[in-house]
C-alpha cells in the first residue's frame, strides 16, 4: 500500500538518516538495524561540529543537554536541539536538528526528523517521527501489544506482517498529536494530519485528515 511507504510519509531532506531509510520500502523495516546505523553515523560526523560526550553518544556542539538528562548510546543529537530536564534517552536514538526532547520524555529506538517536538512527558519507542511533527503533553506511542504477539500493520483491508514484537508509531511530516493520546502498536499517521486530544489511534490514519474519534475522521480543510 503506497500510502504506508517511506516516500509518502517523509521528506528525507530533513534527516541524517536519509541514506539509511532510502534502503527500505516501509518505515518499520528500518527499526531492526537502527542501532548499527547510528554508530556508523556517529563515527562519521565532522569533529568541528559534533563531539562524543559519552560512550557512543555524539552531540552537536550547538545542542543544549540538561545535566539531569540520562543518555545511553548509541545516540546522535543534532544541531540546535534541546534535551531538557530529566529526559531519558535509552539508546538507538537519532535526534535531528532543532528538535525539542522535553522534561521527563523517554525515547528508545527512534528517529526524530528535524524540528520534531516531544516536549512534555512523552514516551516514544520503536517509532519514526517525521519533519515538524509534534506530540502534545502526555501523548505516547505504545510499542508492544497486550497479547505480546508480533505487530501487524493494518490499513483497511491491507495487512502487513512486520515480524517484530515492538513497533510503535510512524508519524508523517507535519503531524499534530493532541495531548493525552495513545498511539497503539503499528499505527501509521499520514502527513499533515491532526489528532484530537485524548484519542486512541489504531491502524492507519490518512494524510490530510482530522482524527476526532474512532470512526470519525474528516478531511482537513485548507482554510
From TrEMBL:
This is UDP-N-acetylglucosamine pyrophosphorylase. Residues 72-143 form the Mannose-1-phosphate guanyltransferase C-terminal domain. The keyword Cell inner membrane does not apply. Gene3D superfamilies: Hexapeptide repeat proteins. Keywords: Acyltransferase, Transferase. PANTHER family: N-ACETYLMURAMATE ALPHA-1-PHOSPHATE URIDYLYLTRANSFERASE, NUCLEOTIDYL TRANSFERASE. One of its GO terms (molecular function) is nucleotidyltransferase activity. It comes from Qiania dongpingensis. The keyword Acyltransferase applies. Coiled coil: none annotated.
